[in-house]
From TrEMBL, chains A, B, C:
Entry protein name: UDP-3-O-(3-hydroxymyristoyl)glucosamine N-acyltransferase
Highest taxon in the source lineage: Bacteria
Record flagged with keyword Acyltransferase: yes
Domain Mannose-1-phosphate guanyltransferase C-terminal: 24-118
Xref: Pfam families: GMPPB_C, Hexapep
Organism: Paenibacillus rhizosphaerae
CDD domains: LbH_WxcM_N_like (cd03358)
SUPFAM superfamilies noted in UniProt: Trimeric LpxA-like enzymes (SSF51161)
PROSITE patterns: HEXAPEP_TRANSFERASES
Sample GO molecular function, one term: acyltransferase activity
Keyword terms, alphabetized: Acyltransferase, Repeat, Transferase
Amino acid sequence: MISTKAMIGKDVVLGHHIVIESGVTIGDRVRIGHHSVILQNTVIGDDVSIGNGSFLGCQPFKNSKVIHHITDQKGLVIGKGSSIGNGTVIYAGSQLGEDVMVGDLASIREQTNIGHSTVVGRNAKVECRTEIGNQCVIQTGAYITADMIIEDNVFIGPEASTSNDKYMEPTKVPLKGPHIKKGARIGNNATLLPGIVIGENAIIGAGAIVTKDVADGMTVKGVAAK
Amino acid sequence: MISTKAMIGKDVVLGHHIVIESGVTIGDRVRIGHHSVILQNTVIGDDVSIGNGSFLGCQPFKNSKVIHHITDQKGLVIGKGSSIGNGTVIYAGSQLGEDVMVGDLASIREQTNIGHSTVVGRNAKVECRTEIGNQCVIQTGAYITADMIIEDNVFIGPEASTSNDKYMEPTKVPLKGPHIKKGARIGNNATLLPGIVIGENAIIGAGAIVTKDVADGMTVKGVAAK
Amino acid sequence: MISTKAMIGKDVVLGHHIVIESGVTIGDRVRIGHHSVILQNTVIGDDVSIGNGSFLGCQPFKNSKVIHHITDQKGLVIGKGSSIGNGTVIYAGSQLGEDVMVGDLASIREQTNIGHSTVVGRNAKVECRTEIGNQCVIQTGAYITADMIIEDNVFIGPEASTSNDKYMEPTKVPLKGPHIKKGARIGNNATLLPGIVIGENAIIGAGAIVTKDVADGMTVKGVAAK
C-alpha cells in the first residue's frame, strides 16, 4: 500500500507488501526490502537502503507507569546514503545523519539525533532524547539510555549497558545518562552508572562497573575472574 | 486475512497486511498496526493498542535438545487497555493483565502471567512459567528466565540477567529462577544466580553478581572498576 | 509472492503474505508461518519449520565505517528438521546443520557454520565467520562475536558476551574471537575478552570477566556482590 500522498523519487526499488503512508518523502535510488513500513511524514534521503521488515517513523506508546511519553512526534528523518537493516524499529521525532548504518533488529526512540557515518549495531537499543556524534560505533546489543550524550568517534562495545535512573524509582531528580566524550572506548558488557562523565580518549575495560567520572585519557578495568 | 471465525469488536482500527486467525476475539476500540499477526484463539481486551509487525499467540517450537517444550498451548489473553509495541513475539498459553505495556522487539513465552500496569521493556525477554506481579518495571533488554517469581512493584534495570540452571547441563535438579520480592530494585546489567531470593525492598547495585540470598531491605553492590 | 523460479517440495504449508524469491529450494513437509521472507538461492531442507516474520538469506549491508562487508554472499542452507522461530534474521553465505533450533528474534550473520542439533536461543546474536559445533546451547540473548570457534557440546549462558577487538579501534591486528573447547560451560552474563581459549569442560561462573586462557577442566568465578 503506497499512499497517493507520498512523494517517491526516481529509480526507487520496492519489495513486496510494503506500506508507505501519507506525507512520506522517499529520495532517489532508495531501495526498500519486503514487508517494510514507512509511517507518516518520514523523510528518507537519496541512496538510502532499507532491509526487510523494518518499521520507520513509529509513535511512542504508553501505559499508566510511563505517562510522560509524548505520542505525537513529528516525522523521522534519515540522511542520504544511510543503510537500515532488517527488523529495525525507529521512531518519529528523531534524525539520522548521512551514511549512518543501523543493524538488524536495532531500535531507536524519539527525539534522538545521530551524526553522520555512525554505526548503531544489530540489536542495539537507543533510548529517547539522546545525542550521538559522528563516526561512532555502537556495537551489537549495546544499551544506550535516554538523556545521554555520546560525542564523536566513540566506540561502545557489544552488550555494554548504561543507565540514567540513580534511584530506580520515581523521584524529583531528573533522569541523566552518562556523558561519553570524544574518542572514548567502552569495552564489551561494561556497566555505566547514571550521570557519570567518561573523559576524552578514556578506555573502559570489558565488563567493568563504572560508578564515577573517568578523567581524559585514563584507563579503568574491572576485576578479572579467578 | 481476517478469519470469518474471528470475533471483531466495535470501532476497531486495523492496518494493512494483518492476519487474524480463527477463534480470535478482538475487543472494542482495539488498534492494530500494519503487518501484525494474531494467531488462533488469542483474546485481546477492549482498548488494547498493538504496533506493527507483532506476532501474538505463537506456539513453542523445539529440536532434540529442548524436547520438553509443549507445542500445543491454549490461547494468549491480553488485558484491557494494554499497549503492545512493534516487532514483539508473545506466545500462546500466557496471560497479560490490564494496562500492561510491552516494548518493541520484546518476547514473552508460554505459561507466563503478568499482572496489571506492569512494563516489559523493549527487547526484554521473558521465559516460560514465570509469574510477574503488578506495577513492575522490567527495563529494556532485561532477561527474565523461566520458573521465576517477581512480586509487585519490582524494578529490574536494563540488561539485568537471571538464570535458572545451576549446573548448565542436563541434571535431575529442577530448574529454578530467582524469587524477587515486593519492591526490590535490581540495577542495570546485574547478574542473578539460580534459585536465590531477593528480599523485599532490597537494592542490587548495577553490574553486581548476586550468588546468594539478599535479606529484606539490604543493599548489595559489585566491585567498581579501577 | 512465490517466484516461479523457486522449487517447492511436497506437502508444504505456507502462511499468508509470504515472499519466496527466485532460486530458492524448499524441501518436503516444510512449514512457514505468516509474513516470512525467503530470499534468493536459500535452500531449506525437508521437515524444517519456520515461524512468522523471519527473514532468511539476507545480504550484508554497510556504510563508510564497515567497508569490509561483502554484500554478495551465496545462498543460505538450513538443514533437515531444523526449527526457526519468529522474527529471526539469518544471512546468506551461512550453513545450519540438521535439527538446529533458532529462537525468536535471533540473528546469524554470513559465513557462519552451525553444527547439528545446536540451539541458538532467542535474541542471540551470532556474528560472521564463526564456527559453532554440534549439540551446543547458545542461550537467550548471548552475543557470539565474529571470528570465533565454539566446539561441540558447549553451553553459553544467557546474555554472555564475547569480543574480538582488543584495541577497540582500527589496527592491523586481525580480529580474533574466543575459542571455546568441547564441553565448556559459560555462565550467564559472563564477559569474554578477545582471543582467549576456554579449555575443554572448563566452567566460567556467571558474570565473570575472563581476561586470559582457562585450562581444561578449570573453574573460574567473578567477584560476588557484598
